[in-house]
Design a protein that fits this description.
By secondary structure, this protein is an alpha+beta fold. It is built from 15 helices and 43 strands. The strands form nine sheets. Strands 20, 21, 25, 26, 27, 28, 29, 30, 31 and 32 form a ten-stranded mixed sheet that branches. A six-stranded antiparallel sheet has the order 14-13-16-11-19-22, with no helix packed on it. It has a five-stranded mixed sheet with strand order 1-42-41-37-36.
Length: 873
């Protein structure tokens, strides 16, 4: 039996004394609306959240009160919740008067602590609503008259038109209260007002399944329209400080993005670039005016003479239209825009984070022979900016971005004005080196590598006494950032650039444990639902691209990712929105089940829908085994979702399917003579499922024996590695797990690093892509086992700290931001002495397990605050 201790009353002394009229022990901070600190949203019942901070142990929120106003100074209030006796500080739904379209709102919260003491009102949090009523859109979809409707690949065109630029002038003759843009451009757009770019965002809007594509059925994997949902995401920019009395000019540049593509395997375009937007001007006198895109806008070809996501971007500065986005520019030589076909996708306020420049790198070396070669410290996705170049008119600079999968170039042709600078706009490149032709010399100050990716940040910090583990964590993070663009987690950022569902599913929990990924996955989960077709099948990528290969474990993202999201963040709305799609997908899975054996079959005729495991270390388990494992796992996740949502009938239906599938799995794949389900991760899948008690020791022994046969190296693909280490730890094989992760020879993370990897790779032998984050699913145990932090209820309202301490690892520091605040753990071993300190957020409870020599671990239950423990190993 475990001994159980509640921390002594002394630890809570700071909050037990004092008067109820004293100072509140907690302060509400970091307010968000729908996960964002300054949200733009079209959710009509937005949810509010905040993080309570305190310097006192045991501090608790016992009540909250929210007020909402249309004015930042709260001179009047629109809605007041009144005091609510509740400890929650997340997903509090606004229930006041229906939000109005295109309106600013501010909200505040004050809370009461465990003594009933009331805090001050928090710093206000702003949010702005989108166009909530479709009839309020006055804009038309417009584009270039020289471009037809169809994408380049529809007619196999190779010649690419220059990126279109659009402009419109308008007059302001009275005082302006506010001015705001609402709209989008496909594939990508940049907005300008009065000569200035209005945002630092790139690759907007988020990538989605925008529209029907007529020729999907002609591709290798013929998954055809209609899909469950089509969306086009739009943005909003506050222009109030940029608008001026008198004449104004608004402009936009359109990039092809994923909307208009030259033919390439894996992907298919939708149509030619188009723009849709309007500026809503609210005047001080209470009147309004809308400047909307229509055929009065002028359009011309820009100096971006070529942009293709899979090829490159070319810019000819001699073709610039100086002042084109400023008032008074002479556009008499321009033509009028024409109306373009409206995409079928629903207009949705952008859900995911935009891409931005997130990191900058200086060169580590510059060498010259026939070309200038520049090396940077890490492989990134983004581009190189060249600065302050003194060039002759017509001088052409060609940059070749070097990686192992897809070599692309960027070309700049100078206008000869002196001090010219440039970087691409509508394509990211992947590189750690570039070759530059056309320059005689280059100073370090004239070049910078810029990482461009979805604007997520580290939500955690992980560091240990083992530098190899630290490096594995670092290179995975770099690879993950490189593969986050447009709200889509890609397989690789260079060759395919596709949101493979299997890749996204396998690495998802590692991402959520380490990055600020709430808005990112909230958006991609909607893509997942949208990638389902009528019979329940979920495509191998979301958004769907027509040659994204995969199999049963890929569509399983429909069950895995929403449940991961719910458990990690505590947001039950995601389960509510996905519940029907989850059930439909599992029911589709059962159409592959053999009625006699209850095993999910392998169907070789379904090319690249039949994939089981992928990129193995040595060999593959059978497809049928992997498929059946995922049928069990997906049905089990529907059961979990049903229980969370209070749906007992659904839980009973899918429990029966889960149990029938498990029985068939054990009956079919277990070999009693060897005590094994097979090699290459087969035993791992079985142990995740749970084997009959009388087999467990034999199966663990077989797994360990398989690993020993591989000289204590892993022997899984990317699905198996997601579970390998946690299965070993759970079944008493911590030291073996630690030995595997420390290997430096093939196959191992260490071997990659010794070859110079700064990102994680696709294959253990180094073939194919050198920038694939999906193997990062296998390092989840760093945080859950070695640091020991794991949720025991959704959103980490309760969690445990149970560090595993392998021989040779002497300390671990880990902190991670959760829905309720930051959890921090630091443990250290010195001889036989063990010490651990932790930080528990307000609103949560931790159960901490401390080693006690040969005895069972001591168990402590603690509330918020900072705590220290001692033990022995």
């Amino acid at each position: 039996m475990r001994s159980h201790f509640i921390l002594p009353t002394l630890l809570f002394a700071a909050v037990l004394g004092g008067s109820s009229c004293g100072r509140c022990s907690i302060t509400p901070t970091e307010l968000t609306t729908e996960y964002k600190s300054d949200a733009f949203t079209d959710v009509t019942g937005p949810r509010f959240a905040w993080i309570n901070k305190s310097n006192r142990n045991g501090a608790q929120q016992t009540a909250y009160e929210i007020r909402v106003s249309k004015s930042a100074d709260f001179s009047s209030t629109l809605w007041e919740s009144g005091p609510k006796a509740n400890g929650r500080s997340a997903f509090i739904t606004y229930t006041g008067p229906a939000p109005e379209s295109c309106t600013d709102y501010w909200w505040q919260v004050r809370v009461r602590d465990e003594k009933g003491r009331e805090s001050k009102w928090s710093t206000p949090c702003h949010f702005h609503t989108g166009v909530l009523i479709p009839s309020l859109w006055e804009a038309q979809w417009i584009g270039a008259p020289w471009q037809a409707e169809d994408s380049y690949d529809y007619h196999r065109r190779e010649d690419v038109d220059p990126a279109p630029i659009l402009r419109k002038e308008f007059e302001i003759t009275k005082p302006v209260k506010s001015a705001r843009f609402y709209g989008t451009g496909l594939g990508y757009f940049e907005l300008y007002l009065n000569g200035e770019r209005v945002s630092d965002e790139y690759f907007v809007p988020n990538e989605t399944n925008y529209d029907y594509r007529e020729k999907l059925g002609e591709r290798l994997i013929p998954v055809e329209d209609p899909f469950n949902e089509y969306t086009v995401m739009y943005l909003s920019y506050d222009l109030t400080d940029k608008i001026q009395q008198g004449c104004n000019a608004v402009g936009a540049i359109l990039g092809n993005g994923f909307y208009d593509l030259v033919f390439r395997r894996f992907v298919m375009g939708y149509g030619t670039p188009r723009f849709f937007g309007q500026i809503l001007i609210k005047y001080e006198d209470g009147s309004r005016e809308v400047i909307a895109s229509d055929t009065t806008w002028k359009i011309e070809k820009s100096a971006i003479i070529y942009d293709q996501m899979y090829r490159g971007e070319h810019y000819d500065a001699r073709l610039e239209h100086d002042g084109w986005a400023s008032a008074g520019y002479d556009d008499t030589g321009w033509t009028n825009a024409v109306v373009k076909k409206t995409p079928v996708g629903k207009m949705v306020a952008q859900l995911g984070p935009s891409d931005r420049i997130t990191a900058r790198f200086q060169p580590v070396s510059i060498t010259r022979d026939s070309v200038i070669r520049v090396k940077f410290p890490e492989e990134i996705s983004g581009w190189v900016e060249l600065r302050d170049l003194n060039l002759k008119e017509g001088q052409q600079i060609e940059l070749t971005y070097l990686n192992e999968s897809l070599v692309c170039n960027s070309i700049y042709t100078a206008k000869g004005s002196g001090n010219e600078s440039f970087h691409p706009r509508f394509k990211w490149f992947v590189f750690s080196e570039v070759e530059i032709k056309g320059l005689d010399s280059l100073e370090p100050s004239q070049i910078e590598a810029q990482a461009v990716n979805s604007d997520v940040t580290d939500a955690s910090h992980f560091e240990t006494s083992n530098e190899l583990l630290n490096t594995i964590d670092k290179i995975w993070r770099r690879s993950m950032y490189d593969n986050m663009h447009g709200g889509v987690p890609s397989d690789c950022p260079h060759r395919e650039r596709i949101g493979y569902t299997g890749d996204g599913e396998s690495v998802c929990p590692t991402v959520m444990n380490n990055l600020t990924a709430e808005t990112f996955y909230n958006k991609w989960i909607r893509d997942l639902r949208g990638a389902q077709i009528a019979d329940g099948y979920v495509a191998n990528s979301a958004p769907w691209q027509p040659e994204a290969g995969g199999g049963i474990g890929f569509g399983a993202a429909m069950e895995f990712v929403p449940l991961y999201f719910y458990n990690h963040y505590g947001d039950i709305r995601v389960l509510q929105e996905c519940f029907e799609a989850m059930q439909a997908h599992v029911r589709w899975m059962t159409t592959w089940v053999d009625p006699a054996t209850k095993i999910m079959e392998s169907r070789s005729g379904h090319y690249f829908k039949d994939l089981g495991e992928w990129v193995p270390a040595t060999g593959l388990p059978s497809n049928a085994l992997v498929h059946t494992f995922f049928l069990w796992s997906c049905s089990n996740k529907v059961v979990e979702a049903a229980k969370a949502l209070g749906k007992p009938d659904v839980a009973a239906e899918f429990s029966a399917l889960r149990d029938t599938t498990a029985a068939a799995f054990h009956r079919t794949f277990y070999d009693p003579e060897t005590g094994s389900y097979g090699k290459h991760g087969s035993n791992v899948f079985a142990l995740v499922m749970g084997v009959p008690e009388d087999r467990e020791a034999k199966v663990v022994e077989a797994l360990v024996s398989n690993i020993h046969e591989r000289d204590d190296h892993l022997d899984t693909g990317f699905f198996g590695i997601r579970y390998l280490f946690e299965v070993l730890v759970k079944h008493g094989q911590l030291e073996l797990a630690y030995k595997i992760i420390n290997q430096r020879t093939q196959p191992s993370f260490g071997w990659w690093i010794d070859q110079g990897a700064t990102t994680t790779w696709e294959q253990w032998d180094g073939n194919l892509s050198h920038n694939h984050p999906f193997m990062g699913g296998g390092i989840l145990w760093f945080y859950q086992d070695l640091a020991g932090v794991e949720a025991t209820s959704p959103g980490f309202r309760t969690f445990e700290i149970r560090p595993e301490i392998p021989e040779g690892l002497t300390w671990v520091n880990y902190d991670k931001k959760t829905t309720y605040g930051t959890i921090a753990v630091s443990w250290k071993v010195s001889g036989s002495k063990f010490s651990l300190s932790c930080e528990v957020p307000v609103g949560t409870t931790a159960t901490v397990y401390i080693p006690d020599g040969e005895n069972p671990r001591k168990e402590y239950t603690v509330g918020s605050g900072r705590h220290t423990f001692k033990g022995t190993i």
